[in-house]
Every structure is written in C-alpha cells, then in structure tokens.
Amino acid sequence: MIVSEAVGCQFFPCTDVHHDGYRIPPVELDPAMIKVVLISESASAEAEDDYYALGDPLFARTTILAFRDAGFPVHSIDEIIRLGVYLTTAVKCNKMSYGIHRDTICECSRLLEQELNLFPQARAYLLMGDVAIQAMNMIGRRHGIGRIIPAGSTYKIRDSVFMFRDIRVFPSYLQAGPSYFIEASKRQMIAEDIAAALAYANSLVVA
C-alpha cells in the first residue's frame, strides 16, 4: 500500500497553511506490520525535510535521534518502519506561522482518521505535541467519546493511561524539527514515551 494513494484532501478549505506544501506520506509499506503510529505537527516548511524525503531530511534526522535516545540503534527511517512504526503529521500542509487554527486541525483530523484506519494492527498512537493531541481529541469527539487526552500540561499527564477503542494513546512532545534540540528535559521525556509505546505495542503482539 502507498499511503498517499489511499488518503487525500479534495477541497483544501484551510486558510492558514500553504496548500502548495500539501503532502501525505508517499511511502509504500505493509499495513499489517505497523504497531505504532507516530503523529507530529504539520508538514515541514520544505519538502526535502519531510520524514520520507531523500537525503538527510530534518524530520528524519531529529526522529532518528529520538529513537536512538529511546534505546533503538536506528540509522534511517526505513529502520524505524521495520520496528513497526509509521510516521505522519496531523496537518498535511505546511503552516504559514507559528500556530495552526483550530478549524484547520479539525479539517485535517478527518484525513488523519482515514490514515489511521489504514493500520488495523496498530496498538499505540504517539502524539508528538499539542497539534497532534488536538487532532486526536477531535477524532474522539466525532466518535462520541469526548476528549481522549484531558486538558493539562503534557508532563503532568503523560504517564497516565489513555485509550481510543483498544489502542493506547501516548501524549508527548514534538520531536520533528529544530525544537527537538532546545530542551534536554523534553528530549528525555520524548525518548521515554517512544520506548513506552513500543514496549506496550510489542507486549500485545507477543501475547
């Protein structure tokens, strides 16, 4: 399956993102092998910095570092995929400014939900940052279960157990891009959350 051929935006109603920066992962993979879906904020400012771009893209570089911090000696996005992890963004276009409007997150959460449905074997979702958390909560509301992740500082709630259907949801911090290099404490929490999500998903597979 090629993800970008299975999910797509038709009308592009959002006004605070660059529509020429619209990108859904073009990666080809076997959906059955995906145990964890990692969701970060939005498409990178430049196409060459997206997760699956050729060369040394920024999103790939900081994500590889995050997985290495978590104890996984990976060197590429392909190796992360082989761990059973699919990488995507909550918003499929790149943003015009620092923030992203709630309406845009809501609109793109419909695409994200379609994307998540492609991976029926997934047992954990990693929400990397506030935009991913908001998008997941919007999916929860559409399913009549309200917020999946409660309001509150991520560091205070990240060790709690949150579920969407039979999938555990892990709130964390943004690992894609230059912000990953800013705070050592957040970098440690990101590593712990990645390790916890994979440990949880693998324990269910083994069982």
Features:
5-stranded mixed β-sheet, alpha/beta, 37% helix, Uracil-DNA Glycosylase, subunit E, two-stranded antiparallel sheet, 207 residues
Characterization of the model:
Helices cover 37% and strands 15% of the residues. It has 207 residues and is of the alpha/beta class. Strands 3-2-5-7-6 form a five-stranded mixed β-sheet, with helices on both faces. It has helices spanning 3-6, 58-69, 77-82, 102-116, 130-142, 154-157, 184-206; strands spanning 17-18, 36-42, 85-91, 94-95, 124-128, 162-164, 167-172. The chain has a single domain (3-206), classed as 3-Layer(aba) Sandwich (Uracil-DNA Glycosylase, subunit E). The mean pLDDT is 94.
Give the topology, please.
Blueprint: H1 3-6, E1 17-18, E2 36-42, H2 58-69, H3 77-82, E3 85-91, E4 94-95, H4 102-116, E5 124-128, H5 130-142, H6 154-157, E6 162-164, E7 167-172, H7 184-206
Parallel strand pairs: 2-3, 2-5, 5-7
Antiparallel strand pairs: 1-4, 6-7
Helix pairs in contact: 2-7, 4-5
Number of domains: 1
How much of the sequence lies in strands comes to 15-25%
Q: Output the helix-strand order.
A: HEEHHEEHEHHEEH
Gross morphology is globular
- The CATH class assignment is Alpha Beta
> What is the CATH architecture term?
3-Layer(aba) Sandwich
Helical segment count: 7
| CATH third-level topology | Uracil-DNA Glycosylase, subunit E
Any idea what the radius of gyration is? 16 Å
